[in-house]
Amino acid sequence: MRSASIRPGRPARGGTAVLAIAALAASLVSCSEDDVVTKFATALTQRDAGEAAGLTSDPTAATDALQRTFDGMGDARPRVTVGKNGDEHDLTWSWSLPHDRDVRYTTRVAAGGGKVTWQPSVIHPDATAGARLLYADEKSYGTRVLDRKNAPLMTWQTVTVVSLDPEHADSAEALAGRLAVADRTVTAAGLRKTVAGKDSPTTVIALRADAAKRVGSLATIPGVTTREEGRLLTTSPALRSPLTTGLEERWRGDVDAGAGASVTVVDGEGEPIRLVESFPAATAQPVRTTLDAGLQRAANAAVAREKRPTMLVAIRPSTGGILAVAQNSAADAQGPVALTGLYPPGSTFKTITTAAALKAGVTTADAELPCPGRARFGDRTIPNEDEFALGTVPLHTAFAKSCNTTMAALGTKLGDTALADTARAFGLGVDFTVPGITTVTGTVPPARTPAERVEESIGQGRVTASPFGLAVVEASLAAGTMVRPSLFDGEPGTADAGAVRIDPAVATALRAAMRETVTSGTAAALRDIEGLGGKTGTAEFGDNSHAHGWFAGIVGDLAFATLVVSGESSAPAVAVSGAFLRGAGGDLLTVVRSERAVLAD
After folding, report:
1. What is the Cα–Cα distance from 415 to 420, expressed in whole angstroms?
2. pLDDT band per the 50, 70, 90 thresholds, residue 589
3. Spatial distance between the Cα atoms of 592 and 292, rounded to a whole number of angstroms
């Protein structure tokens, strides 16, 4: 038989099919490789380490490396795109960082058998086994929080954090003995309670640098460990205030806004291999506040005299700037009550009642009015404290002596909304939005019945006020218009009510009556403080068997309100106020003599 001949350069019929199949197979392999790399890039973009690792030749190693990188990059989000590069693929990484920054670079990967060939350089060209990417903020922790005179209020400081292992609770006695030199309130029982039920070492105290030095090393006490860390703290414990939370939030916001950053390839021990990108930090400006460090120290020392919850708020009328907010530890246990706690204001509200009566023209400052020890108004009987009686006296004297019966009688002559309207003109019942703090001034609802109007005229019934709210009232009286409180320099708060001018004649009459309160009235214990005017208040609450004690006043360009919860009379609040004003010394003098004072004494 003759065999078939095949011409050179011309494939046999069956060879054509073989070549076609081979070409198709190569195409399918190529598509498969492209597909797996694309899926890999998609999983990386979604920060899904498990999904991405499952597409590689070594899922275990890939999962660990990718997860460590995602963790190290914090909240940064990657976007990974694929490009063909010969037999391999380019992965272009674009990390979106905080503050609208980004980092871009390219890595190269191969694929085979439907898998991405895993190697550390998939993460970054300079990555080796165990390496990862690490994002770090570079912040200017040296930024200070300053008072109105540029004195430092808060700075970044190193503290020593002390922890106790629950398994060594029997060390509480020895530890408490050592910590007593820094904090007398620390007890062994308290330490044991702190760690009770815990399954790991628990923080029991953080010591400032000077306190840690006095305490010394605690290494010899079984179960006690220490570590150092940075914190933003007041420059001294004497500057403690419920305002510090808002100050720290502003400080952190400013520091974060000016923060620099870096992205680094680090090895398994966290040591740098290569700096990928860095962004220089901007110098954060100091946080400038309206507070006065001297007045804050004086306020803290004054409220610390009392064991009962005690608060004091001071505001500068000419600017609305908050000068000091102080609470003792008993008040701290109830939250930031100097700013948000609501209590019946008692006789301090007579400032509003008198202003409303003068504005309505139902009386004058010198009008002779009766002040009986007890008087009945409809179905409501109103007594003076201990039922003292003055007979017929000028309104300013009835005010200075805190005559309930006189004020209740004036209340009966006012309209149902007169007290509420007047209170809002002074800032009480107004909702302020003050950057850095949350505040509540009080509530003065319109009277629904004659009995409610009588009760509200002496600061009882449904009327409430916070120490902050009463300080706003006094500051507005001094300023002649409702102030807009502020905590940060140049950032006045906003209000849900427009400011209206307080009638100058009304303001003058009130200031004179307040001065008389100090020189010969219920606050005569403060008569040595030159130029001071104020109003005392005793406010019953609950079943009327207990009372809060108030004092609110103005001296120069300083207005303040003091509250002693369950003080039973105004005497404790007067005493705390006196300690504050006398203890402020030269710091008070600079405020009293301020050239920006709105009203002269």
Report:
1. 10
2. confident
3. 13
How much is the average pLDDT of 422-433? 97
21 C-beta neighbours (distance < 10 Å), count: 10
Q: What sign does the dihedral 116-121-125-131 (CA atoms) show?
A: positive
Model confidence band, residue 594 (pLDDT cutoffs 50, 70, 90) = low
461, 445 Cβ separation under 8 angstroms: no
**Residue pair 295/303 in contact by the 8 Å Cβ criterion:** no
Statement: residue 3 has pLDDT above 70: no
Q: CA-to-CA distance for 215 and 209, rounded, in angstroms?
A: 10
Check: CB of residue 349 under 8 Å from CB of residue 463: yes
Relative to beta strand 464-465, strand 391-394 is unpaired
Q: What tokens appear for 528 in the block? A: 């040595």
Classify residue 176 by its DSSP letter.
H
Task: Return the residue matching tokens 């073989």.
Answer: 18
Instruction: For residue 115, give the 3-state DSSP assignment.
Output: strand
Q: Contact at 8 Å (CB) between 182 and 148? A: no
Residue of 432, 399, 416 lying closest to 513 (CA atoms): 399
Q: Is 236 helix (H, G, I), strand (E, B) or coil?
A: coil
Cross-strand partners of 287: 145
Q: Give yes or no for a contact between 352 and 514, defined as CB atoms under 8 angstroms apart.
A: no
Look up the pTM and report it.
0.83
Give the torsion through C-alpha atoms of 398, 401, 407, 408, to 10 deg. Answer: -120
Q: H/E element holding 36?
A: helix 13-45
Angle at 413 between CA 409 and CA 419, to 5 degrees: 95
